[in-house]
TrEMBL record:
Residues 490-508 have a biased composition (Low complexity). One of its GO terms (biological process) is 'de novo' IMP biosynthetic process. The keyword Transcription regulation does not apply. This is Phosphoribosylformylglycinamidine synthase subunit PurL. Its EC number is 6.3.5.3. It comes from Hassallia byssoidea VB512170. Keywords: ATP-binding, Cytoplasm, Ligase, Magnesium, Metal-binding, Nucleotide-binding, Purine biosynthesis. Residues 464-509 are annotated as: Disordered. Pathway: Purine metabolism; IMP biosynthesis via de novo pathway; 5-amino-1-(5-phospho-D-ribosyl)imidazole from N(2)-formyl-N(1)-(5-phospho-D-ribosyl)glycinamide: step 1/2. The keyword Cytoplasm applies. Belongs to the FGAMS family. ATP binds at residues 53, 92, 552, 589. Residues 18-54 form the Phosphoribosylformylglycinamidine synthase linker domain.
Length: 819
């Protein structure tokens, strides 16, 4: 291309593409000329934070990325781990935050479609979805609209495409009022002989465009996702893509069939930045160039110009590089599935992306300049924690009202511990997510092992593909910090032998969870991020799964502000340490920055820093798992982890935020040696068949965890804390503090001796017997060692608060509208 004689773009035009003045100058330097409009748009999307991670890439280098089971790490469409026995699992998490804030239904739906394409582009059949969602207060009508729309979008796309949504978490906090978070994780079982990579190769090989047609929807979505939300951008509906799950279902089958022919050299889905991203990334990764003719691209709208072709994020589209001479074989496959498929270009030797349009060159840019050699910002890190953190750390429990075994006085009224517990169970973040998961088809593919809410992690059966199974799937939903769960259907199920006369080979399963306590990370990003990794691993261990690997989704505010960058950098440091300590390498993920909105006075309001961890684990024998529900009257209840006489901080707790309207203090510090020991013992107890239920103590602490076990199993519990009523500790610290690597388990009386022998051998003083499971539909009773009653609540009352908290708020909003 000859040097352009056009003048430089105006500062407003440059800013409209998400570029800084100095970045534009760098573009001119690299090209030796001013870019044209199409090229400016290409640089805008590819140099956005969403695509090139220009603020976060230096921090991500801290993450451990290798391990004995890691087959594919960061850099490809998804990570892949070796499950043994010839099974390989692809998995990844991504965000669709800004689009969901603008148009919640389509924003969430296309988030599901995009993450599924990342999975099957590797040659894996999608077997499960999970989601991690954040919204403002559910009392707010705007939040109710966003929440309902996002859940409807996820359920619509997942249900129609035939992939079960088996787990997730939902948090509600005013920090997300203007900027909800929608993170979606997908898992897939490799179905092709070779893992499909994305690097183009083979000079003269044809480049195929396959899938749906191209329109103007989703224009500039990558740049849109890399800037703060404003009143103007919230009205920017063209930046939100529109998905077709039925077309994606056909695309899955066509792609997997195409990959099995051996005719595909490389594949890349068209997600953020559309054609621009797929062509530049495939060319750069392969060290070659790609020439693409826009006149060959199937379109759904007339009069489109190169800028629109290149920046469109129309959904359900892919780019293939095929072996020369075999392109028609692939085209026939896609046509048979009712999809578009055309040869739109070829691989060239010159390492550039050359775009043709109407007989001329519409754009010509070095591939590396778009996809590899992109801007990088290593910002100055605060030498001291910011003022808000220092002030929050000054908080101590001494500032709370005095409390006794009878309760605590709040605003002049004595609140019993029964009252406090019921209030926490009614908190939407803690309460059952039944309203959510009942909209999802969690049984499609018929491989879910535990029904919704039955356990701390989702469990998906791994059926050999040659048996006609899809490799996995799910009927369950309970996976994550606050489970989307069904306490009414909570008992684990497992496979039965195909023949009673044969001893079957143990059938394996994969477990998955998504986790993050954002309040912890806000108050101390380093310690909070470590806690995220620890809880994810604990959730997997509670179903008997060995944690294997991590995919992360970093949701933060602006890195250009000192506090925002400090939060991001410290959280990355904590995640890296946590993953190293628990031997769970990071295989990839997503970074979503600039998650903040402007208040009425024009001041930016960032979200809580929210590094969501998606973690997968392996269950070697599907018959040896358990859920969180009590199983039988008389079973003995144990607490693993830090014993109750050890002081655990109330700082950052759900109790402190909900009951005292205070977000302050230090989050619990993670003792990784204790975490490893507790989780190992828990897994061993489950695999030996001794543990009948397991549930970690997370939000709400010991009391909420005990209540959830009672609600799930419809069985009561008689608990003696082993602490005298005259202890120096506060009773709210005992009942509601969080942390300490704690897990509640129940064990049948017949296994007590062998189980306690294991505890004495491996956990020493870090366990205690709490009590026993009582009969059905009774109470949760919690006593001191001298038989003073702290809590005595009927299961029926707890279940009502817990099961209907979200529905009550949504129905209340409907009544207000009607009146």
């Amino acid at each position: 291309m000859t040097a352009s004689s056009k003048p430089a773009f105006s500062p407003e035009e440059i800013a409209a593409e998400g570029l800084k003045p100095e970045e534009y100058e760098e573009i001119v330097r690299r090209l030796g000329r001013h870019p044209n409009k199409a090229e400016l748009g290409m640089f805008g999307v590819m140099w956005s934070e969403h695509c090139c991670y220009k603020n976060s890439r230096p921090l991500l280098k801290q993450f451990p990325t290798t391990g004995p089971r890691i087959l594919v790490g960061p850099g490809e469409n998804a990570g892949v781990v070796d499950l043994g026995d010839g099974l390989q699992l692809a998995f990844k998490i991504e965000s669709h935050n800004h689009p969901s804030a603008v148009e919640p239904f389509q924003g969430a739906a296309t988030g599901v479609g995009g993450i599924l394409r990342d999975i099957f582009t590797m040659g894996a059949r999608p077997i499960a979805l999970l989601n991690s969602l954040r919204f403002g207060s559910l009392e707010d009508t705007k939040t109710q609209r966003l929440f309902s729309g996002v859940v409807a979008g996820i359920s619509h796309y997942g249900n129609c495409v035939g992939v079960p949504t088996v787990g997730g978490e939902v948090y509600f906090d005013s920090a997300y009022s203007g900027n909800p978070l929608v993170n979606v994780m997908a898992l897939g079982l490799m179905e092709t002989p070779e893992i499909v990579k994305s690097g183009a190769s083979g000079l003269g090989n044809p480049v195929l465009y396959v899938g749906s047609t191209t329109g103007r929807d989703g224009m500039g979505g990558a740049s849109f996702a890399s800037a703060e939300l404003s009143d103007e951008s919230l009205d920017n509906r063209p930046a939100v893509q529109v998905g077709d799950p039925f077309l994606e279902k056909s695309l899955i089958e066509a792609c997997l069939e195409a990959f099995k022919t051996g005719a595909v050299v490389a594949a890349q889905d068209m997600g953020a930045a559309g054609i621009t991203c797929s062509t530049s990334e495939m060319a750069a990764k392969g060290g070659v160039g790609i020439e693409l003719d826009l006149d060959k691209i199937p379109v759904r709208e007339s009069g489109m110009v190169p800028y629109e072709y290149l920046l469109s994020e129309s959904q359900e589209r892919m780019l293939f590089v095929a072996h020369k001479g075999r392109e028609q074989e692939l085209i026939d496959i896609f046509h048979r599935w009712g999809l578009q498929a055309v040869v739109a270009g070829e691989v060239i030797a010159e390492p550039i992306v050359r775009i043709l349009f109407q007989g001329g060159i519409a754009a010509e840019i070095p591939a590396e300049a778009l996809a590899e050699n992109t801007p990088l910002y290593e910002r100055e890190l605060l030498t001291e924690p910011p003022e808000y953190a220092i002030k929050a750390w000054e908080w101590t429990p001494d500032s709370l009202p005095a409390c006794t075994t009878a309760g605590i006085e709040i605003q002049g009224s004595l609140q019993s511990w029964n009252d406090i517990l019921l209030t926490l169970l009614d908190t939407p973040t803690i309460a059952s997510k039944r309203w959510v998961y009942r909209q999802y088809d969690h049984q499609v593919q018929n491989n879910t092992v535990i029904l919704p809410g039955g356990a701390d992690a989702a469990v998906v059966r791994l059926r050999p593909l040659e048996d006609g199974g899809s490799g996995g799937g799910g009927r369950g939903q309970g996976a994550g910090g606050r489970e989307q769960g069904d306490e009414e259907n909570s008992s684990p199920t497992s496979s039965s032998p195909s023949s009673p006369s044969e001893t079957p080979t143990p059938q394996s399963a994969v477990a998955a969870t998504v986790d993050c306590n954002p309040r912890y990370v806000y108050l101390d990003p380093y310690e909070g991020a470590k806690a995220v990794v620890a809880e994810a691993a604990r959730n997997l261990s509670c179903v008997g799964a060995e944690p294997l690997a991590v995919t992360d989704n970093l949701n933060f505010g602006s890195p250009e502000k000192p506090i925002g960058y400090w939060q991001l950098a410290e959280a990355c440091r904590g995640l890296a340490e946590g993953c190293r300590e628990l031997a769970t390498p990071v295989t990839g993920g997503n970074v979503s920055l600039y998650n903040e909105t402007f208040d009425s006075e024009g001041n930016p309001q960032p979200i809580y820093p929210t590094p969501v961890v998606g973690m997968v684990g392996l269950i070697p024998d599907l018959s040896k798992i358990c859920g969180q529900a009590w199983q039988a009257e008389g079973d003995i209840i144990y607490l693993l982890g830090l014993p109750l006489e050890s002081k655990v901080e109330l700082g950052a707790s759900e109790y402190l935020a909900t009951i005292h309207n205070t977000v302050a203090g230090h989050p619990p510090r993670v003792d990784f040696e204790l975490e490893r020991c507790v989780q190992k013992v828990c897994r061993e107890g489950i695999r030996n068949g001794w543990i009948r239920s397991a549930h970690d103590c997370a939000e709400g602490g010991l009391a909420v965890a005990l209540a959830e076990c009672c609600i799930a199993g419809k069985l009561g519990a008689e608990i003696n804390l082993g602490l005298a009523s005259s202890i120096s500790q506060r009773w709210d610290e005992v009942l509601f503090s969080e942390g300490g690597a704690r897990i509640i388990v129940s064990v049948a009386l017949e296994h007590q001796e062998v189980w306690e022998s294991l505890l004495n051998e491996q956990l020493a003083n870090y366990w205690q017997q709490l009590g026993k499971v009582s009969n059905s539909n009774t109470d949760l009773g919690v006593l001191t060692s001298d038989n003073q009653s702290l809590i005595k609540v009927r299961i029926e009352d707890m279940s009502d608060r817990y099961s209907h908290a979200i529905e009550r708020r949504l129905k209340g909003a409907e009544l207000k509208v009607m009146s």
